[in-house]
Fold this sequence. Notes:
This protein is α+β, with helices and mostly antiparallel strands. The chain has helices at 11-16, 36-45, 65-70, 120-137, 167-171, 219-230, 240-249, 284-293, and strands at 20-24, 27-32, 47-51, 56-61, 85-91, 97-105, 110-115, 149-152, 157-163, 187-192, 195-200, 209-215, 235-237, 298-304, 315-318, 321-332, 338-345, 355-360, 363-370. The strands form four sheets. Strands 10-11-12-9-3-13 form a six-stranded mixed beta sheet, with helices on both faces. A six-stranded antiparallel barrel has the order 14-17-16-15-18-19.
Amino acid sequence: xxxxxxxxxxxxxxxxxxxxxxxxxxxxxxxxxxxxxxxxxxxxxxxxxxxxxxxxxxxxxxxxxxxxxxxxxxxxxxxxxxxxxxxxxxxxxxxxxxxxxxxxxxxxxxxxxxxxxxxxxxxxxxxxxxxxxxxxxxxxxxxxxxxxxxxxxxxxxxxxxxxxxxxxxxxxxxxxxxxxxxxxxxxxxxxxxxxxxxxxxxxxxxxxxxxxxxxxxxxxxxxxxxxxxxxxxxxxxxxxxxxxxxxxxxxxxxxxxxxxxxxxxxxxxxxxxxxxxxxxxxxxxxxxxxxxxxxxxxxxxxxxxxxxxxxxxxxxxxxxxxxxxxxxxxxxxxxxxxxxxxxxxxxxxxxxxxxxxxxxxxxxxxxxxxxxxxxxxxx
Length: 379
């Protein structure tokens, strides 16, 4: 393991549970504890507990947070109400994605922003550089003191997620709030087992669940208590391996795969998040031109015919011509272990029902284009 790898506050807890640790986003993170399949099943049928403390967090404050963020992202920010969380994407001038993120509005003046761990350094530069420019251009006071204040908290604060149909049942006894009354993509400042925390009804698995932000010093006690309380209901610790399969089944993008500096939100099937009517934002002209042309390659779902899995980078063919490449692929336990994939393909090959071939180790394997997501949780 490289000496430069960082460790979250839960590292010793992971090691005590026998986790297989791998480098991810600059941290030593658990890829699995027992098996990916077992952890996947826990999330789909009971609940799984994830350490997401490697994600980069930023505290935002001031009256200018909304207007500043609006100028950089495709979705609306300034109209968020306290207690709301919202998915968003920072874009470059070409319309490609710097990162996909979540904004949490805590009150009129305070926000929390969470970005992907692998993009922490890049996003810190984007955020701070743009904030300094925004302050200069609006003649605000220097130092980001009044109208726009930003503090990076990467690695300083814990983030624990509980995901699965029994999440409310397991977590309710720990939280001084009515969890069942919380709406999807909402957040609240409360106490969790007596510790001040932000609790959000958000997640990345396709299941109901919550994410808990608290100071790192309390993370281990909270993690251990949740596991002890939740294990009779089927709660298991879950690693990055299960998380990746879960999010793929749910059709959720992974940065570096379905979204990149070159792959735009429109191509990723995230056009619902792009609000062209909002004030000017970075990349809007490029996205408007892309939408008007309509000829862009786009992410499509594939279900393969056979038992051979597709992997990122494998070529995709239709009618004998190469039309794109696989971006993510896995066996899907929620779909009777069929092999699924996302692929960035030409528009003519993206229509559901289209037959394509994926080249896997020199041989062509048939697949059918299907709508995303592959899996939707029962209502």
